[in-house]
Amino acid sequence: MRTLLVCSEPDAPSVNMKAALLRKEEWESAGSDGDASYLISERFAIMTIPELHIYAEGADSVARRTVDFDNMVFLSRHKASSGMPTLTVHPIGNYRTADFGGKDETLCPASPHMMSATLRAMQKLNDTDIYTVSFEVTHHGPYTETPAFFIEIGSDEGRWGDLHAAEILTDALLQTETDDSNIVAIGIGGGHYAPRFSEAALSYRIDFGHMIPKYQIDGADEDEMVRMLTQASEMTGTKIAYIHRKSLKGPEERRIRDLVESQGMETVSSKDLDPINPR
User: Fold this and answer.
1) DSSP codes joined into one string, 82-103
2) Per-residue confidence at 279, pLDDT binned at 50, 70, 90?
């Protein structure tokens, strides 16, 4: 299985992560196609593009003309008004309008096993007192038909040039070991940084794909919720949901649970999960 890593030249952390990867693997040129160039190693391919990756619609279709791969990871910066130093991974797509790439109301296939395993590797390798490691919920483009996620350094320009952070994330990618026997789930509720889902994935044998935060749930009618639930489920390849109950008021939590069950899905909580390191 080969993973396509996408480097965006306008994105400083993306370029720094590519440079780190070039030092850590043996690569050979696979040529170029239009503005994109390719390198390959035994397990990875690197696609370098001149545009910002969130707008690189169908980059997987373009890359398949040159290299073979099963999933893809976009190397990226992360920007947030909080300025909180973070190392993140997140699925791709838009629950509503496509304000930053992708398509309206369209999610891309998630990569729950690899994304969650990468989060765990990031946590293990994070030897700083600076960065928090976490999921972000599903957001922004580009549109892909291949299982994909973003891996990011943030949260502002002061962190984007951090070469040590680039080392941590690239080591995590190279050392990631997936466990396909883990439960796969979508996450529902909570905030943008999904601390409950991050905590669950770091502690238990559960791998998350798409995550629907509370701010997407607020104001959503039944049809909108069913659309988001079914698409998140289909694009993650699961019929299991993990609800961050404490982030929702009682009536709202019951409404969401009823809608989940109405779609033939089931819910799990931490008490249903096996710990990663049982005592």
Assistant:
1) T---EEEEE--EESS--BTBS-
2) very low
Is 70 part of a structural domain of the chain? yes
Q: Give the pLDDT of residue 278.
A: 60
For the record, the structure tokens of 178 come out as 């997936």
Amino acid at 192: H
Total count of domains within the chain: 2
Closest CA to 161 of 15, 23, 9: 15
Separation between Cα atoms, residue 118 and residue 170, nearest integer Å: 10
- Dihedral pair phi/psi, residue 93, rounded to 5°: 145, 175
pLDDT digits (tens, 9 = 90+) for 1-29: 899 999 999 999 999 999 999 999 999 99
Long-range contacts of 254-261 (CB under 8 A, 24+ apart): 256/188, 256/189, 256/217, 256/225, 259/222, 259/225, 259/226, 259/229, 260/188, 260/229
- Is the domain of 105 the same as that of 32? yes
Domain limit, last residue, from 130, 150, 175: 175
- Cα four-point dihedral sign 56, 60, 64, 66: positive
